[in-house]
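Sequence in, structure out. Go.
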Amino acid sequence: MKAILTVQNAVSGFVVTWWTPIFVGIFFAIVVYALWPRNRAMFDAASRLPLRED
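Output:
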């Protein structure tokens, strides 16, 4: 059976080839940023905001 190149196949190949690794990299960068020790105080303060009484 002969493979037919369609727009859907081309777009799917592009997404899998380029965007998936880019988004995985962005995800890991966000996780590293959130877990970086220097940012701990800022995130701890932000986590207490809903419980703060004005």
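Check: The mean pLDDT is 87. The chain has one domain: 7-51.
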